[in-house]
Q: What sequence folds into this?
């Protein structure tokens, strides 16, 4: 009997998730039953095709159908059809094409036909994965490919090993899934998007916030060029300080992360604490973001980019990489960026930024080492701050009309100065073909100073009795990870085991000076005299220390020639936080489990489900007007750690050059907000959602990237029950993204367009104020050509094409409230030349 799928509207989604078989208790029960049934059925089910020995696999014939086109897309499709794991540097195949492959071939023959005339050769790494290398000059004029042995797919040993790009080159075929290592997206029982350096460069991204603008499940709550970036993933706040660097937390700059040195920006959606460890600043319940740094590839790179951003900011970016030594074992990659303090889209706003990132690595047959060292500086004048609604006798002011805000409401003398120095080292050693030990350590030191005015506005737009603030802060972070991975077999079951322990320690200090009163109007900003900062103390005392630690064990069981996977694991987590301002201290431990399954009946389809828990550190109680437009009576304190839970079920479809995924999820966690002037954990939030993602090339010369998220959020068990049933403030019912690219008949010319939509959001827990829905349109073009024999790419794009003025978000840090203004129209231009 066949069943036709029913369409699910946004209005019907809430009732669907509460009354259908996918309600929380039923979905959890279904996952438990499915996992039990799968385990019992293993000995009863027959494989669709027989297992092959490694030698037989290299010689046996299989039918392949790989379309002609870009070499990268052809190799990716061939690897999927052959059931092998292939990874390579994108630069090796850039600009190369393949005649495709059709008919019955061995793996050897397939590689030989696909790589013919490319100047590339296939290699087999010590861990059984395949890679590419350049042929020597003698082989380019004769010779043949070496005999290749096929290895069974296994857990990727090296975390630095990149998954290849998917068709279209905007996203990768997979990414890092915490302690599970690098995984193909079709073999992952979670939802992951890994954005490539090619997409980052073509989007002319300044920070990683500009990269994830392409994801419907993620929103940045601050404007481009703002004081800091802050994200929302599946309706849960995720701080920029929680972004991981190659799996280590706390290493990257706290307030914004430059995008130029990133090879991948990976977004894992869903509760991630069990997979990755505790997120330092209290996020992670909705997902996490990981940055994979650039490494030197087998192909030398010397690339320079000059850029311009409206109104008058210019910049330059140098990217250089080399490999040397026996078998190109040693690598060095440097990325340097400088952007002059030119004016940006907001009037009298400017930004000066600098980045230096050096990546060293060694790749031996059994030993792999890497070292990353970086420095980032950002100085911004007049960054727009969040706007708070004034509270008069318990009644909030009306939301200001964003369409009437024509000028930057921040005084010209406000500023943000941030500076971070960071380093991270990683080592991995293959004890044999089955066991790998690894360790990583990193550190960061940050210095920050802000001269701020946070407007608290009345209904007519006036803000008065608002004091300027000079806020200084330092941070010292140490992060450590050690572990062992094993690939074992027990009869017909393959096991990918990982045992890992990590430790994170952070110390920070704050110094907050309240300055004179500022009177102005958000619609007609007044000229405000700059405050006198002479004589203010500058000695910053230690404010807080946090020690986070955990030990985790996970087993990825694979059966039936990869058609069935079970993932079982647990993490013992420990948090020790000490706040010296109000002498708050928490020392708690808990065990967070993971259970997931994935069924892959063929290479085109996978069905997955998971139950996962996470522990996160408690929120820091906001200072300023974080309690309904008033000062919090307990400002600066620390809340207790909280645990989140998530259920998810979904399916993924891979059509070779185009892929899509759809999933249903529910997550629950305690939520913090203010009741009167006291901030605390005053309820529980329940987020139920449907997530649809699309990417790839549905037609030749056409690329798409985007999707839809429908989100039903609800407050339950609120203080006194007064907010039960209300929507969680700062969340939209619907987010939609669609990015489209078209390679025109004019050789080298590509046109781009993007639309981003978010529905309305409530401002407060009582749901008395809200911002309207908004839509943004972007257009662009790029042209690839040559100049004096050197490859040259010209890019131009306009973001917010129609110059819409809107409030983009009401989500703020630590459960506080605020309005973020959308970025005005911006013109971005760049030119990249390869030497």
A:
């Amino acid at each position: 009997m066949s069943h036709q799928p029913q369409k699910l509207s946004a209005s019907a989604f809430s009732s669907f998730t509460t009354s259908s078989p996918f309600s929380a208790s039923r979905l959890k029960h279904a996952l438990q039953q499915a996992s039990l049934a799968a385990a019992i059925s293993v000995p009863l089910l027959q494989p669709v095709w027989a297992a092959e020995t490694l030698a037989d696999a290299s010689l046996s014939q299989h039918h392949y159908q790989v379309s002609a086109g870009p070499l990268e897309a052809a190799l990716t499709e061939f690897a999927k059809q052959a059931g092998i794991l292939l990874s390579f540097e994108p630069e090796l195949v850039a600009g190369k094409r393949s005649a495709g492959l059709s008919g019955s071939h061995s793996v050897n023959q397939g590689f030989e036909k696909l790589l013919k005339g490319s100047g590339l050769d296939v290699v087999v790494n010590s861990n059984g994965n395949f890679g590419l290398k350049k042929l020597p000059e003698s082989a380019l004029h004769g010779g043949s490919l070496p005999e290749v042995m096929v290895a069974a797919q296994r857990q990727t040993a090296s975390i630095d090993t990149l998954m290849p790009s998917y068709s279209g080159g905007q996203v990768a075929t997979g990414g890092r899934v915490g302690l599970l290592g690098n995984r193909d997206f079709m073999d992952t029982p979670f939802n992951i998007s890994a954005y490539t350096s090619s997409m980052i460069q073509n989007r002319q991204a300044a920070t990683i916030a500009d990269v994830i603008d392409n994801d419907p499940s993620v929103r940045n709550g601050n404007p481009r060029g703002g004081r800091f970036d802050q994200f929302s993933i599946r309706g849960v706040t995720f701080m920029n300080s929680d972004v991981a660097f190659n799996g280590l937390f706390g290493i990257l700059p706290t307030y914004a992360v430059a995008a130029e040195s990133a090879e991948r920006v990976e977004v894992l959606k869903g509760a991630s604490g069990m997979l990755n460890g505790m997120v330092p600043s209290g996020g992670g319940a909705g997902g996490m973001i990981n940055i994979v740094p650039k490494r030197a590839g087998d192909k030398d790179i010397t690339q320079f980019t000059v850029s311009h951003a409206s109104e008058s900011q210019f910049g330059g970016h140098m990217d250089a990489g080399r490999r040397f030594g026996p078998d190109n074992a040693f690598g060095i990659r440097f990325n340097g960026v400088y952007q002059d303090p030119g004016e940006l889209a907001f009037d009298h706003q400017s930004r000066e930024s600098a980045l230096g990132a050096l990546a060293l690595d060694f790749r031996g047959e059994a030993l792999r080492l890497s070292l990353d060292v970086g420095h980032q500086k950002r100085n911004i004048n007049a960054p727009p701050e969040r706007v708070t609604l004034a509270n008069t006798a318990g009644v909030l002011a009306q939301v200001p009309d964003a369409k009437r805000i024509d000028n930057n409401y921040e005084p010209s003398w406000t500023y943000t100065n941030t500076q971070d120095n960071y380093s991270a080292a990683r080592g991995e050693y293959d004890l044999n073909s089955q066991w790998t030990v690894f360790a990583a350590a990193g550190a960061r030191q940050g210095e920050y100073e802000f001269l701020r005015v946070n407007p608290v506005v009345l209904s007519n737009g006036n803000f008065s009795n608002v004091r300027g603030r000079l806020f200084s802060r330092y941070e010292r972070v140490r992060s450590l990870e050690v572990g062992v991975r094993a690939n074992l077999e027990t009869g017909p079951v393959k096991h990918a085991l990982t045992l890992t322990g990590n430790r994170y320690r952070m110390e920070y200090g704050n110094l907050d000076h309240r300055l004179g009163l500022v009177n102005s109007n958000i619609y007609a900003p007044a000229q405000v005299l700059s405050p006198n900062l002479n004589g203010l103390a500058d000695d910053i005392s230690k404010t807080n220390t946090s020690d986070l630690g955990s030990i985790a064990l996970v087993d990825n069981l694979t059966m039936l020639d990869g058609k069935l996977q079970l993932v079982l694991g647990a993490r013992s987590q420990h948090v020790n936080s000490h706040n010296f301002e109000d002498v708050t201290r928490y020392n708690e431990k808990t065990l967070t489990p993971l259970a997931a399954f994935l069924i892959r009946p063929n290479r085109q389809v996978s069905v997955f489900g998971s139950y996962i828990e996470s522990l996160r550190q408690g929120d820091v109680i906001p200072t300023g007007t974080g309690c309904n437009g008033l000062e919090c009576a307990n400002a600066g304190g620390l809340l207790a750690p909280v645990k989140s839970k998530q259920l998810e079920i979904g399916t993924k479809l891979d059509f070779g050059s185009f892929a899509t995924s759809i999933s249903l999820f529910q997550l629950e966690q305690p939520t913090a907000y203010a009741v009167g002037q006291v901030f605390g954990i005053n309820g529980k939030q329940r987020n139920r959602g449907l997530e649809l993602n699309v990417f790839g090339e549905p037609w030749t010369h056409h690329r798409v990237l985007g999707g839809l998220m429908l989100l039903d959020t609800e407050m339950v068990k609120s203080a006194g029950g007064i907010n039960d049933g209300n929507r969680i403030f700062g969340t939209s019912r619907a987010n939609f993204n669609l990015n489209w690219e078209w390679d025109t008949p004019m050789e080298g010319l590509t046109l781009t367009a993007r639309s981003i939509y978010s529905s309305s959001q409530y401002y407060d827990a009582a749901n008395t104020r809200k911002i309207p829905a908004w839509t943004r349109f972007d257009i662009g073009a790029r042209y690839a050509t040559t100049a004096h024999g050197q490859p040259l790419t010209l890019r131009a794009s306009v973001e917010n094409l129609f110059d819409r003025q809107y409030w983009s978000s009401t989500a703020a840090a630590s459960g506080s409230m605020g309005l973020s203004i959308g970025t005005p129209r911006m013109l971005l231009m760049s030119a990249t030349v390869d030497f």
The two ends are 61 Å apart (CA to CA). The longest helix spans residues 24-41.
